[in-house]
C-alpha cells in the first residue's frame, strides 16, 4: 500500500508486542525517516542562514535522478530560478564549505545545473539521501552546505572526500 509516496508494504513493517509499528532496517519507510531527518537539519541551516543576511536559499534532497550515468543534473525550483537567477543559460559557481569552487552550467529553461555537477558531486562524496542547502551569495554563485544522509560519514581534510 502506498501513502504519500512511501511504500508501507507488509515486508517493510513489523509490529511490536504492544501493536506499535516498527520500521525494518533497509526498508523504504526507514529511508523516508532518514530523509525526513536530513530535511529537518537542512531546514534549520536554511533558517539560520536567512536570519544572518536574508540571501535566497534553496534546499535540495538528492535522489537517484541526480546521479544517472547518462545525465548527472541538479534540478532547482522553477519559482526560485524565476525570482533569483538570470533568465538565460549561464555558468555559475558552486562553492563547497571548504571554499573550493566548481564552475557548472545553469540551464534557464530546465531550471537545472548540469555540466560540472558531476565533478562537484564526486569531489564532495555526495550520495542519494544527502541534502544540499544552496545559498545564492551573488547572481552567479552558490555557497553549498551539505547535510549527510549518513551522519557517521564525515568530510575530512582530504579535499572534502568522505572518510569513515
UniProtKB/TrEMBL annotation:
GO cellular component term, pick one: nucleus
GO molecular function, one term: DNA binding
Compartments reported by the entry: Nucleus
Principal subcellular localisation of the protein: nucleus
SMART domains xref list: B3
InterPro entries cross-referenced by the UniProt entry: B3_DNA-bd, DNA-bd_pseudobarrel_sf, REM16-like
Region described as Disordered: spans on this chain: 1-28
Domain TF-B3: 59-150
Pfam families xref list: B3
Keywords, ordered alphabetically: DNA-binding, Nucleus, Transcription, Transcription regulation
SUPFAM superfamilies noted in UniProt: DNA-binding pseudobarrel domain
Composition-biased stretches (Polar residues): 1-15
The protein's name in its UniProt record: TF-B3 domain-containing protein
Organism: Linum tenue
Amino acid at each position: 500500500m502506498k501513502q504519500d509516496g512511501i511504500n508501507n508494504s507488509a515486508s517493510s513493517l513489523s509490529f511490536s508486542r504492544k501493536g506499535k509499528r516498527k520500521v525494518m532496517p533497509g526498508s523504504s519507510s526507514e529511508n523516508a525517516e532518514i530523509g525526513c531527518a536530513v530535511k529537518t537539519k537542512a531546514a534549520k541551516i536554511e533558517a539560520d542562514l536567512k536570519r544572518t543576511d536574508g540571501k535566497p536559499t534553496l534546499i535540495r534532497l538528492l535522489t537517484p535522478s541526480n546521479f544517472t550515468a547518462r545525465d548527472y543534473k541538479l534540478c532547482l525550483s522553477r519559482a526560485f530560478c524565476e525570482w533569483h537567477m538570470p533568465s538565460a543559460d549561464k555558468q555559475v559557481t558552486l562553492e563547497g564549505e571548504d571554499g573550493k569552487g566548481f564552475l557548472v552550467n545553469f540551464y534557464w529553461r530546465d531550471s537545472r545545473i548540469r555540466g560540472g555537477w558531476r565533478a562537484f558531486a564526486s569531489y564532495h562524496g555526495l550520495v542519494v539521501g544527502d541534502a544540499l542547502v544552496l545559498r545564492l551569495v551573488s547572481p552567479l554563485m552558490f555557497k553549498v552546505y551539505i547535510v549527510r544522509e549518513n551522519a557517521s560519514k564525515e568530510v575530512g581534510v582530504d579535499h572534502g572526500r568522505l572518510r569513515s
